[in-house]
Each structure stands twice: as C-alpha cells, then as structure tokens.
Amino acid sequence: MYFWPHISQTNIIEANFRINEMTIKMEMLRCFSTVVQTGNLAEAAVRLSRTQSALSMSLKQLEEHLGQRLFETDRKNRLTPLGTQVFELAQQQLRDYDNTIRAIETTASSPKGLIRIVSVPSVSGLVFPSAIDQLNNLYPGIKVELRDTDTQQVINALIQNHADIGIASGHHALNGIQQHLLFEDRFGLVCSPNNPLARQVDDPHISEVVSSGFVRNELCELIDCSEFQEIVSSALVTVHNTMSLIGMVRTANWVTVLPQQVVHLLPSDLSFRPIAGLTAKRPVYALLREHSQFPGYAMDLFNIVCKFDWKEQIVKLG
Q: Is residue 158 part of a domain?
C-alpha cells in the first residue's frame, strides 16, 4: 500500500508563494513596455517613478520566467524576436487593463448612471450635441463619455464592453450588438484646389484619380466597386492617420477618396467632387451593446440617434 508523504502547511504556503512568484504580473509588463518605449532604464525609471535597480529586477524576473532574453544587449535598446512579440502583446494587455480600471472608477463615481459612446469623427459632431442634451433632460445627473476613433476601435470597444453605443462605417456582423442603418454618403475625390483634377471641367474618372499621386486610406476598403479595388490595389502609398492624410492631400501632389461627410471635418482649402463611374456609398450604422450596465439609458440614447433627421442634416452640410 502506498502512503502519501506528509505535507505541512508551511510547505503548501511556500509552494503557493513560488507559483505566485512565477506569475507574470501587470507591473512587469508595464516596466518592460516603458523600457522599450524609452530605450533605456534611466528614462523609464523617471516615467514610472521607480529606481533603475527595481526596473532591472523586474525585467530579470520576466526573462527568467520566460526562459529567454527579451533584449539583445544589456543597454535595453534593441529587442530580440521574442521581445518584439512580447512587447506587442503587452501593449494590448495594458490598454485593456487600463481601460477596465478607468471604467470601474468611472462607474463607481456615477451613481445615477453612465453611458459610454464611441463614434467615427465624421458623425459624432452631427448628432451627439443634441442627442446628449435630450438624454440629460430625460435623466438629470447621468454621466456621458464620448470618444472619437476609427471604425475598428469602435468595434473593439463594443466587443470588450468598453462602450455601450457606437457609430461605425460599414456593416459588421457582431453577436450581441444591435445595428441600425443611419445614412449613406457618397465617396468622392478629395484634393487641393490647385490639383489639376480639381480644376478640370468634367468629373475625373477612377483611372485618372488613381494615376494622380493617389493615397489609399482605410475607408477605401468600403467601396464596393471591382474596378476601383483592382486599380487601388497597386497604390504605392497608404496612410492610416487622418492628420497625415490631410497633410499630404493639402499639397497639389496627392489626392485621395473619402465619403462626403468626412470632408466637412477637413480644412476648407480642400476640394471634393464626384468621380465618374463611382457610385459607391459609405453606410454608417448605429450600434447598441445589448448587455449594457444601464440598458434603459443606452436604449433611449440609441433611439434618439436612430430618429435623428440625418437627411436634413446631410442636405444642410452638402
């Protein structure tokens, strides 16, 4: 017969302590990410209000747990292949963690309720000033958070329960999220008034637009036109940041394609005109997370947004 050896309480505590020691803690990831961002221990220590020795120890523990080096040298200014992967994953985890903490703290300080909204910039300024005003009249004291971001971040915020209501470009099949089409706006050429395409009499054709220093952007993916997609697939320049895109297009050397409503947010020295042969429109949807913390408030705001007179607003801006 086999007898189990006696395990004392002290042994159990020591074993648990060793397991906890091996856990990758969030602060380890924060230390590692900050060192990568600053390129050295000294600046990272200042940013985190910690000593260099404490950061060095944290990095050592992380590397020992992973069993591999994260930096090529002791200077901490160049990552190993593993370090690059860990940095990308750490950034994602830290963003999620920080967002969760902010959400918890905001909720705790909002006894009368909180509604979190994320929206593409081209739409938020049109509807939410009046929509939020109506919501405050219905529920005095309710807190509202509004963030402008791109469509992918809108989707991510809703999926990760960092938002209750979203407005995004394009249709997205999402479980547990209700969607309603708000409006559609036409795609067109955006360029400097000094660009030849802005001055020509006839509307430029797709081939002319793409051959004139074309800059591709993420909204181009929403254009349901095989001819357009085939031509732009060979574009040499793609810009994801809106400010960088505007900066390039404001010169007479570059052009891009954007929905008409986006143009109203751009500097007045840019031109918008239709493109011959391109009738594609960008659909804009309101999205409602079905399991929000304050579902009644979220549903009321969602209904306000859906009942907004979008046609009148678009005609007014157009």
A: yes
Answer yes or no: do 140 and 206 share one domain. Answer: no
Residue 312: C-alpha distances to residues 129, 183, 209, 301, 303 (Å): 16, 11, 30, 20, 18
Q: Looking at the domain assignment, is residue 87 inside a domain? A: yes
Q: Long-range contacts for 193-197 (Cβ within 8 Å, ≥24 apart)?
A: 193/269, 193/270, 193/271, 194/252, 195/252, 195/253, 195/255, 195/271, 197/255, 197/273
User: What whole-number distance in Å separates Cα of residue 217 and Cα of residue 270?
Assistant: 17
| Per-residue model confidence as pLDDT tens digits over 1-59 | 444 444 454 454 444 434 344 478 889 999 999 999 988 888 989 989 999 999 999 99
Give the CATH number, domain containing residue 247: 3.40.190.10
Last residue of some domain: 81, 102, 123?
102
Whole-prediction pTM: 0.66
Per-residue pLDDT, 295: 87
**DSSP type of residue 309:** -
Q: What is the pLDDT of residue 306?
A: 93
Range of the domain at 51: 9-102
Q: Where would I find the H helices in the chain?
A: 9-22, 26-38, 41-48, 52-66, 81-108, 121-138, 151-159, 196-199, 206-210, 226-232, 242-249, 260-263, 295-306, 310-317
Q: What is the mean pLDDT of residues 62-80?
A: 87
Q: Which two tokens stand for residue 195?
A: 């660009």
CA-closest candidate to residue 158, choices 259, 262, 26, 285: 285
Based on the fold, state whether residues 120 and 170 are members of the same structural domain. yes
Q: Are residues 205 and 165 in the same domain?
A: no
Vertex 81 angle, CA 80 and 83, to 5°? 60
Q: Give the pLDDT confidence score for residue 3 in this predicted structure.
A: 44
The count of structural domains within the chain is: 3
Q: Are 294 and 164 in contact (CB under 8 A)?
A: yes
What local confidence, expressed as pLDDT, does residue 163 receive?
Answer: 92
Query: Both 237 and 273 in a single domain?
Result: yes
